[in-house]
Write a structure and sequence with these properties.
Layout (H helix, E strand, L loop, with lengths): L4 E8 L1 H5 L3 H11 L2 E8 L3 H7 L9 H8 L4 E9 L1 H9 L12 H5 L12 E3 L3 H11 L4
Antiparallel strand pairs: 1-3, 1-4, 2-3
Length: 142
Amino acid sequence: MSAQIERTLVIVKPDGFRRGLTGEVLRRIEAKGYTLAALDIRTPDRERLEQHYAEHVGKPFYEPLVEFMSSGPATFVIVEGQRCIEGFRSLAGATDPTKALPGTIRGDLGRDWGEKVQANIVHGSDSAESAEREIGIWFSRA
Ligand code: DAT
Ligand code: MG
């Protein structure tokens, strides 16, 4: 376990933004004790989404995912704190919001909407390498 302060990239995805859940997500991040280091609202462009989701190219949900993510404004947040990468993934819950446990963002606020892609409210980086890569894509001047 390291005392080093980490950074992670959180995105309140277009479904969360449309549903007015940005404040609720930020509230949970702050209540956990993490710090908001940067915040920006914008509609994700396809070019940067393709970089962001490069690991998923070719999967059946890739095209629906990029379509969905570019469907409207989203909130991009750099979150800071000890072990916040792992910690935010715990706050978010499992990828499938139907299976995500109650108490998590996806478990409490998400559901299956019958779409080809899981509209699961939030993104959170899955490792220190992903976090720095993703922050570089979306906050090139951060
Ligand atoms: P996570 O967002 O939990 O890190 P991921 O990186 O595996 O999950 O996938 C990125 C996003 O793609 C995810 O948030 C929702 C969508 N997705 C993943 N697996 C899916 C699936 N089997 N069917 C539909 N959408 C999926
Ligand atoms: Mg992921």
